[in-house]
Amino acid sequence: MTTTPKPLIAGNWKMNGVTSGLTALRTIAEGVSQHTDTFDGLICLPATMIERGTRLCNGTALLLGGQDCHFEQSGAHTGDISADMLQDAGASYVILGHSERRADHDETNTDVLKKSLAAYETGLTAIICVGETRAEREEGRAMEIVSNQLEGSMSKDANSQNTVIAYEPVWAIGTGLVPSNHDIEAMHGHIRQVLSERFGVEGESMRILYGGSLKPSNAEEILRTKNVNGGLIGGASLKSEDFLAICAAVPGN
Ligand SMILES: O=C[C@H](O)COP(=O)(O)O
């Protein structure tokens, strides 16, 4: 039987947060803890902050995650972070294949798939990111691009517990631009169909997040869109009042 997934409201702090972040994190943790029945709250921190964040959020419902991991758990990989290391610091999630990593570090779908296997081995839930560029959308290829990313980045071992998909149109990230509600619904419906065809019931209950300029003013409309099971939030997750306002817009909250 298919169950509607519990929404996940996830923040991605990217390479930010050292100066004032920990105060905001504690405020977010306390706010999220008041609504554990309606959604799960997660902040994906810079790796160096996860252990401090774990201590600071002890006793709250806020989940913590990393933003990338290596596909091996240890070895001669200077500067890299393994899934085991993230978990050791207190993470339970890891973002994989964010468009900034695909662009800045030439990460391929195959790389993302291999990293997801490392995450599963450790017991981390992988948030696998997909999304088209502006040129690809204008060429009418958005769905084809996202289908290919899903096909290449997801292992056969993915299920509704160990994997979350984040649809993030590259042109909407940090720009203030957001697809029309019609376009978000169409893409999330497409992703649901791809997941259901490949993973059956597991694909029907896998969470699909929307990301890209999600903020308090557009959160209510986006979060009630069919097949939108939460959000992956960049800039607005750095301010506790904005992140908690987005949380307050979760349907049923
Ligand atoms: O991972 C988060 C996304 O890149 C969205 O970033 P943004 O909310 O700043 O547009």
TrEMBL record:
<dbReference type="GO" id="GO:0006096">
    <property type="term" value="P:glycolytic process"/>
</dbReference>
<feature type="active site" description="Proton acceptor">
    <location>
        <position position="168"/>
    </location>
</feature>
<feature type="binding site">
    <location>
        <position position="174"/>
    </location>
    <ligand>
        <name>substrate</name>
    </ligand>
</feature>
<dbReference type="InterPro" id="IPR035990">
    <property type="entry name" value="TIM_sf"/>
</dbReference>
<dbReference type="GO" id="GO:0046166">
    <property type="term" value="P:glyceraldehyde-3-phosphate biosynthetic process"/>
</dbReference>
<comment type="pathway">
    <text>Carbohydrate degradation; glycolysis; D-glyceraldehyde 3-phosphate from glycerone phosphate: step 1/1.</text>
</comment>
<dbReference type="InterPro" id="IPR000652">
    <property type="entry name" value="Triosephosphate_isomerase"/>
</dbReference>
<feature type="binding site">
    <location>
        <position position="213"/>
    </location>
    <ligand>
        <name>substrate</name>
    </ligand>
</feature>
<feature type="binding site">
    <location>
        <begin position="234"/>
        <end position="235"/>
    </location>
    <ligand>
        <name>substrate</name>
    </ligand>
</feature>
<dbReference type="GO" id="GO:0006094">
    <property type="term" value="P:gluconeogenesis"/>
</dbReference>
<comment type="function">
    <text>Involved in the gluconeogenesis. Catalyzes stereospecifically the conversion of dihydroxyacetone phosphate (DHAP) to D-glyceraldehyde-3-phosphate (G3P).</text>
</comment>
<dbReference type="InterPro" id="IPR013785">
    <property type="entry name" value="Aldolase_TIM"/>
</dbReference>
<dbReference type="Pfam" id="PF00121">
    <property type="entry name" value="TIM"/>
</dbReference>
<dbReference type="InterPro" id="IPR022896">
    <property type="entry name" value="TrioseP_Isoase_bac/euk"/>
</dbReference>
<dbReference type="GO" id="GO:0005829">
    <property type="term" value="C:cytosol"/>
</dbReference>
<dbReference type="InterPro" id="IPR020861">
    <property type="entry name" value="Triosephosphate_isomerase_AS"/>
</dbReference>
<dbReference type="GO" id="GO:0004807">
    <property type="term" value="F:triose-phosphate isomerase activity"/>
</dbReference>
<feature type="binding site">
    <location>
        <begin position="12"/>
        <end position="14"/>
    </location>
    <ligand>
        <name>substrate</name>
    </ligand>
</feature>
<comment type="similarity">
    <text>Belongs to the triosephosphate isomerase family.</text>
</comment>
<keyword id="KW-0413">Isomerase</keyword>
<dbReference type="GO" id="GO:0019563">
    <property type="term" value="P:glycerol catabolic process"/>
</dbReference>
<comment type="pathway">
    <text>Carbohydrate biosynthesis; gluconeogenesis.</text>
</comment>
<keyword id="KW-0324">Glycolysis</keyword>
<comment type="subunit">
    <text>Homodimer.</text>
</comment>
<keyword id="KW-0312">Gluconeogenesis</keyword>
<keyword id="KW-0963">Cytoplasm</keyword>
<protein>
    <recommendedName>
        <fullName>Triosephosphate isomerase</fullName>
        <ecNumber>5.3.1.1</ecNumber>
    </recommendedName>
</protein>
<feature type="active site" description="Electrophile">
    <location>
        <position position="98"/>
    </location>
</feature>
